[in-house]
Each structure stands twice: as C-alpha cells, then as structure tokens.
Write the structure tokens for this entry.
Amino acid sequence: MVSSDFGFEIINVDELSLQEERFLPSELLAYARDENESSFVRDIEEHLTLVYQLLDTQGHVDDVRHVPRVIPVTLFLKEDGLFVLANHKNINLVKKALNRVEKVDSPKHLLLSLVTVFSKQYFDVLDTISEERDKLINDLRKRPNKSNLARLANLQSGTVHLMMGTKQNFEMLTDLQNIEQDKENTRNEKIQLQDAIIEARQLSNMCSLNSQVFQELSSSYNNVLSNNLNDNVTTLTIISIGISIIAMVTSFYGMNVKLPFDSVDAVWVLINLITTIITIMLSIVMYIYVHKEDNHPKHK
C-alpha cells in the first residue's frame, strides 16, 4: 500500500515524449532503456538511483522448457517521491509487485519494499527448477538419452541467468548498505534494507548451489556419452576388421592366381563358411581383449 504522503509514479520510458524527457536526467533515461544494464547503485544529480534485475515471470513460470530471464528495472529516489522507470517488457511486472507491497511510510521504505518483493518472486521459479532437477537426475540414471540431456542443458542455461541476476542484486544491495550506513534512516527503512539483503543473499546462494549441481551433472554425463561413443567406435572397428578379412580372402578368387579348390563350382560356399567362422572367432577375441580392463578393473 503506497501512502499519499509522498509521490510515486511508474514511468514507461517507451512512451515518453521529447518534452517529458526534458524533466528527467539523460543519464537516467540511458540506464532505463538499456535492456542489458547490470545492477548498480549510485547518485545521479544527488538522488539515489539503482538498477535491479527483475525476474521475468510472464507466462512461463511453470514451464520447465522455458529458460528464465532477468530484466533490469531502474528506480529513482527523490526527497518527495519514488519514480520507477520501466518499459513494455517489465512494466506489468512492476505493477504486479506493487500490489504485494505492504504499508510504507516513506519513499525509501517503498523502494526497499519493492526490491524485497522483486527478490521473493525468484523463489517460485527456483522451487520449480529444484523439483525438475531432482526428477531429471532420476531420469538420467535410468536413461541418459537426448531428450533428458536437452532438459539438463536447458535447466543449466536458465540457472546461469538466475545466478548472474541474483549475484548482481546482492552485490548492489551490499553497496547500498555501505552508502546508507552513515545516513539517518527510520527504523522501518533499516529493517526493510536488512530484509532485502537477507533475501538477496539467500537467492544468490541457492542459485550458486543449483548451478554447481548442474555443472557436475553435465560433466558426469558428458563423460558417460564420451565413453559410450568410444565403445561404439570400438565395436564398429571390430566389425570393419571382420568384414575386411572376408573381403581379403574372397578377393583372391577374382585374380588370375592359381589357388586351391578354384576348379570346384561350390568352393565359394566353403570359403565363405570358413572365413566367416574365422572372422567371428577373431572378433570375439578382439572384443574380449578390448573390454578386459572393464571386466577386471585395477585395484590399488
């Protein structure tokens, strides 16, 4: 709930006229329009300005195939009010977060409350990712097929986006705490800042943990796929050697060379039978030799 004792406005920078832009610092507008802006806090014209990485929760929160994204939003704090500079991508997210803000008594209290709500929106997505991660681990143990590995890559990519966003937010709030420690803030503002930092730290740690888990999973199953590929290549090599033996033996009977049994009409049946038996025996010997270390691992 936003108090009427101070001003508050959500400004859509995509719809500003040239005349309206004159009343806002050009540097502030540049930050607000940069879709790849990193989180930071600083003073612009002696007014506190911060950029926060807002989670894009529009339409795909529960869809595990969707890669979570973060969108920067700019907040500009003045003595008499708070201005949120949004665009067409995040303005609805800001309005939705505003509805979850409890009663505040100052512009700075509102800013910190909004940041806390922004952070809490990450938890639902992280819970979904954690559930999908546990399910994926079980599926990969049963069968590391292309579909499961694609899910792993998708979740890993989404977690990296979340990790970078939450890390930036936590570092920004830590910088804000250093800036605010010498200022006279109300009790509610101090409590809200601590709450925001706690939420951001927890999110950053959770995302880092998920990222490490996915990285280890990816590394493990890359090794599994590499070993499977080596086994397949080895098997194909053995088959190729076996086929080459048959081709080598039978090729002599197409040359002008005196060979045994070449006057017998049905000799090709006997030759094929003998060479096939020899090929199978050699293939078995090669297969056993190649896989003997797998069947009898070395013990230290």
Q: What stands out?
A: The longest helix spans residues 187-251.
